[in-house]
Specification:
Blueprint lengths: L4 E8 L7 H17 L4 E3 L15 H5 L2 H15 L2 E3 L2 E6 L2 E9 L5 E6 L22 E3 L2 E5 L8 H9 L4 E5 L9 H6 L3 H17 L2 E5 L23 E4 L3 E3 L7 E8 L1 H10 L1 H5 L19
Parallel strand pairs: 1-2, 2-3, 8-9, 9-10
Antiparallel strand pairs: 1-13, 4-5, 5-6, 7-8, 10-11, 11-12
Helix pairs in contact: 1-3
Length: 299
């Protein structure tokens, strides 16, 4: 029986700061477009409802409305019969803010939930990490899936833990900009963060024989829409990275949606060639320790 081909909508939304209603309305329009194109899955970026403005006094109050929007996405998924990963939704739990990604099935059921573990340095004063909770792969209509968020990309261990559990699609909502590079790094290469993303995404796909669904935030072009006008620090680059072929359906830096056909057969062909999963599952595999977690932090 041939492996399935899934149509994945990568929605590179431009999240307007604190405009939670406007951003949600834009997201819904794109998801409806994805469903009209018979997509199996639609994915939004990290912070898509609020953008990242944690120092604003209204930011925590907006995050406290998260349940309303999660419920709306569940209803939309059931209505359109499409699987949705609504980027990340920041939730307020007591005095803590959690950055959460969900996988919502085409019946409107939440099948997976992941709280961002590896917080980017400027996030740490504001967000709470999932710390030592394990990464968990889960069953979906698209097979075994894992969720990661943004800076998790920098940690191969996160992918390994998901792949060891059978994940073949790893979905990564992201809010990653060119300005995430230091001044020293920018002097060496103004597009260093773009290079980081281009290098790491394809590497993770090859080294794990998986498909990486990467969806970043985008910017808005100014003027006549030609060239780099209005780019600012937006990195964009949303794509589906797969072994052998690299980046598929890669977007530029501005807002937009792409539809990528993901042929799952390519993952079987890559595993046949590289045997990464076979080695990971073999008895006495020499890196097995990296997939276990002690109850106490390592010293």
């Amino acid at each position: 029986m041939p492996a399935p081909v899934y149509k994945v909508a990568i929605i590179q939304l431009h999240p307007k700061p604190l405009d939670i209603e406007g951003n949600h309305a834009s997201a819904v329009r794109y998801i409806r477009q994805a469903a009209a194109q018979s997509c199996h899955l639609a994915v939004l970026p990290e912070y898509h409802l609020t953008s990242w403005v944690p120092d604003s006094p209204s930011f925590p109050d907006l995050c406290a409305q998260s349940a309303k929007y999660l419920s709306a996405y569940c209803s939309l998924a059931a209505e359109l019969q499409i699987n949705i990963v609504p980027g990340t939704i920041i939730e307020k739990h007591g005095s803590s803010l959690l950055n959460i990604a969900y996988f919502i099935s085409s019946t409107g059921t939440i099948l997976g939930r992941y709280q961002k573990k590896n917080l980017w340095h400027p996030e740490r004063p504001h967000l709470t990490s999932s710390t030592h909770e394990p990464h968990v792969a889960f069953d979906t209509p698209l097979g075994k899936v894992g969720l990661l968020i943004c800076w998790d990309l920098a940690f191969p261990e996160a992918f390994r833990e998901l792949v060891a559990q059978g994940a073949k699609l790893v979905i990564v909502p992201t809010f990653w900009t060119l300005a995430d590079c230091s001044e020293k790094g920018l002097r060496r290469n103004p597009f260093a963060e773009q290079l980081f993303l281009e290098s790491v995404l394809v590497a993770r796909a090859f080294e794990n024989t998986c498909a990486v669904v990467f969806v970043n935030a985008g910017g808005v072009k100014e003027g006549d829409g030609e060239g780099e006008s209005g780019r600012g620090s937006w990195a964009g680059g949303s794509q589906v990275a797969v072994p052998f072929e690299g980046a598929r359906g890669k977007l530029g830096w501005c807002e937009g949606m792409g539809v990528v056909d993901v042929d799952m057969e390519i993952l079987e062909e890559a595993e046949e060639n590289y045997k990464v999963r076979q080695d990971m599952g073999s008895e006495g595999w020499h890196y097995e320790y990296s997939l276990t977690r002690d109850s106490q932090p390592a010293k």
